[in-house]
Specification:
Length: 121
């Protein structure tokens, strides 16, 4: 009887060992599968974070360009205003100097007769 009990217990322990080994394999396989799934999840998270970072970069670049255009527009407006002021001041001084004679003779001055030239009668 003890021999049979020993055989049964040996068989059960072998079966338990086989079950334990199978359980370990199942656990390791499930752990590998979990890691793979986590990697894919993490990869998805990484790509979405990368997309967000790229979008933020693009947005910042657009804002910089917009600000630059705004500054250029302001500079142009200031330049136009300065030119208008110059023109205005020139026209005001021209009105003030209207009665004054110019230092250089006019191009279309009245021609003065020079008298008779030699060779002409």
């Amino acid at each position: 009887m003890t021999a049979i009990a020993l055989l049964i217990s040996a068989g059960m322990s072998a079966q338990n060992a086989a079950q334990t080994q199978t359980e370990r394999q199942n656990r390791s396989a499930s752990a590998v599968q979990e890691q793979t799934q986590d990697q894919y999840r993490n990869y998805g998270q990484v790509t979405s974070e990368q997309k967000q970072a790229r979008n933020a970069e693009k947005k910042a670049l657009k804002m910089q360009q917009k600000e630059l255009k705004k500054q250029q527009k302001q500079m142009k407006q200031q330049e136009v205003q300065m030119n208008q002021e110059k023109i205005r001041s020139k026209s005001q001084t021209a009105v003030k100097n209207k009665g004054a004679r110019t230092a250089t003779p006019m191009k279309n001055a009245a021609k003065v007769s020079r008298g008779s030239r030699p060779g002409r009668k």
